[in-house]
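Tokens in:
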């Protein structure tokens, strides 16, 4: 376990993504994945009110609902940390004060809990003054409905501005950042944002940690990709000279440690500046094995450098 930034949350080195719950993973499968994750020591689960509003016939909140039912059935709310988000649900878009208040109550109801451990702005909302957004989040923290705040998909300048406003106005600040970051998508985090996170001691939990499955090693040159799912199409886009070089480096290091390729890709993330834990999801328990192995895999400096060079 390690402290998440400056929060009082001690977390397992892997965060379980809940985007699949109620979507590609049905209720029973979701319960089995959650049981296996927590049995292995996992304690931070990431969801959002918008999961999975993109599915025909869904309205959003499906993931939170399943998670709430699971916690209620296992009576384990005090043993897990729940992260959820506001701003992207079609019925509750943006970061106005009124929307944040209403969305938080909706999430609490679906999660069947009286508090959210980590509440994110799911994306920046430039139509609403940062002061309004931060004051609304601060109100939730002071009411005990939210323990800690996070920012997802913020640029370094906007995040720095938000932190400055919180400091100036005496408001609860963002303590956690959730960027798009992995071996094949480095530009979203590295540079100014990473430097800011290190300087401000922010805990970082990257999403798309396995690049839509590409970094599991499942997709290879010459393979026939089953179906035309968005994930397969996205992963296929990484199969260029650079992507093939990354897979080769991953294969070599995975073989040396006798672990799956995905374990190495996640371990590389953990070795990067300010990263507390990568976020990865599993549709069924069998997919969890590679994710969990990453939590105990510490790469050598040379191995980290090899992967970093391959992905330049």
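Residues out:
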């Amino acid at each position: 376990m390690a402290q998440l930034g400056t929060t009082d949350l001690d977390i397992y080195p892997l965060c379980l993504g809940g985007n699949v719950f109620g979507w590609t993973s049905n209720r029973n499968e979701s319960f089995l994945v959650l049981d296996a994750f927590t049995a292995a020591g996992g304690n931070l689960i990431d969801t959002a009110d918008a999961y999975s509003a993109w599915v025909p016939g869904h309205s959003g909140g499906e993931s939170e609902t399943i998670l709430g039912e699971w916690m209620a059935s296992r009576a384990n709310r005090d043993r897990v940390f729940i992260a959820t988000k506001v701003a992207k649900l079609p019925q509750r878009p943006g970061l106005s004060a009124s929307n944040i208040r209403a969305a938080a109550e909706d999430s609490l109801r679906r999660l069947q809990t009286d508090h959210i451990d980590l509440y994110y702005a799911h994306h920046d909302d430039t139509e609403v003054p940062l002061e309004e957004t931060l004051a609304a989040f601060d109100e939730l923290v002071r009411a005990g409905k939210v323990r800690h705040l996070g920012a997802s998909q913020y640029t370094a300048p906007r995040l720095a501005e938000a932190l400055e406003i919180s400091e100036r106005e005496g408001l609860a600040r963002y303590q956690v950042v959730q960027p798009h970051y992995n071996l094949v998508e480095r530009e979203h985090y590295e540079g100014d944002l990473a430097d800011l996170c290190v300087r401000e001691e922010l805990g970082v939990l990257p999403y798309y940690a396995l690049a839509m499955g590409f970094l599991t090693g499942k997709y290879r040159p010459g393979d026939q990709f089953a179906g035309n799912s968005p994930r397969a199409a996205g992963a296929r886009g990484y199969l260029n000279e650079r992507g093939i070089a990354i897979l080769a480096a991953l294969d070599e290091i995975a073989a040396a440690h006798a672990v799956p390729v995905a374990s190495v890709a996640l371990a590389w993330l953990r070795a990067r500046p300010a990263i507390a834990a990568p976020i990865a999801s599993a549709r069924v328990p069998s997919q969890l094995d590679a994710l969990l192995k990453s939590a105990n895999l510490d790469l050598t400096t040379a191995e980290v450098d090899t992967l970093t060079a391959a992905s330049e």
